[in-house]
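Entry for the shared binder. Reason: the reviewer on the internal report wants the predicted structure included alongside the sequence.
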Amino acid sequence: MGITISFRHISHDEGIKRYVEEKIAKLQKYIEIPLDVHVVLTIERKYRHRVDVMFTIHGVVINAHEVMDDMYAAVDKIVDKLERRLTRFRDKMKMYREGKPKRTAASQEEAISKIIVTRTVDAKPMDPEEATMQLEASGDSFMIFRDREHGNICVIYKRKDGNFSLIETLGKTA
């Protein structure tokens, strides 16, 4: 765990630095990956002690701050707050992982795709424009046809953006 501590409007104090490092290090037990934690200790208006903590877990940025009259109390309070957040995060990750099926050799065999229905399609000769009109009229997601000009087998399908794409085979087939 990497802990970076910055002091703003306060003199560098080894006692509070050790205290913060000791308390923040306890957060590591809640997650599997090592944390890089940034802590900023600030005194505002000569009496407000503010602690800001920021770190990232799996791409999620977690920020927390606490303002109190005593710096040690503010550190204790922010650590409690972060422990609750990390516990909640860990529980959500655990539920997410339990919801996914386990990847074992037996489950991989079951996950292999199987052909359920086989159909023979008569690829009628037509132009791509005519195939586009017939595809729109039919409401299907794709159409197979033979290019009238070259005799190639073609597939036309409607894209998510509303346009059409054409896949054309090379060479003439029987």
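Summary line for the report: The mean pLDDT is 84.
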